[in-house]
Amino acid sequence: MKKDIHPEYHTDAVISCACGNRITVGSTRKETAVEICGACHPFYTGKEKLIDTAGRVERFERRRAATKAKYASTPKKARGTKAKTTAKSKK
Prior knowledge:
single chain
């Protein structure tokens, strides 16, 4: 390795979150500030709220029910009941 080209590595670097949580890690930066961490992120804390924009789930369920109703009312065709075609005779 070449000397004096690598950054200094801090084994006691501190990451501080806006919520007040402080994490000690190894990094080339002595201190780092973040807005959100695993202790306050809604996904990891279980406080996440899923927003159904424009009723997508309900719209999908309505289309699915309509399709099922459409195909439930029409009888299925039996296999192999196609009319056989005859070859045209040559003149």
